[in-house]
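User: Run a structure prediction on this.
Assistant: Running it now.
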Amino acid sequence: MERLYSEDAGVSSPTDFEFGSLANSLALLLEAAKTELEHDQEAARTSLATASCILQSEMERRSRAKDSRTGGLAGWQIARVRSFIDENLHRTIHASDLSAVARRSTAHFSRSFKRAFGEPPHTYVVRRRLEEACHLMLTSSATLSEIALSVGFSDQAHLCKLFRPAFGQSPAKWRREHEAPERG
């Protein structure tokens, strides 16, 4: 049973924030696949493969995190850190910022974060930035440069450099393949 915490009103479990973001990303990909199915089956397959990859990766990450939870962060710390990261993706986030939110020394926080989340703080922040960039590419008409800056990358090239290894293609190509066909 997941813990309830009183320090953060309205937060019922430490996985609510993460689940909401993951569910939103998957829902967008599945909706794009449904739309693409009629017009472009290859793009639909790509959307489904991306959704499957994200889901599998998340299941593996959670499995690793559960195996190593001992000595991690308390539920309220996880919720506050997650919330802080999501609210501050647009700016530089240092480990010292996160450790202050969790009220731990930076070294202790970094070890505890990895135990609780299954990955180091920097890796988690980059992954959240990439997820938010994907969301914005599907839901807004902003340029890739604007999206890159709005999620905390220094420029479009920085987004591209990290996006390609994560998704196997450039952000521009990914966006084109996942755009809903124009109706006229």
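The chain is about 70% helix and 0% strand.
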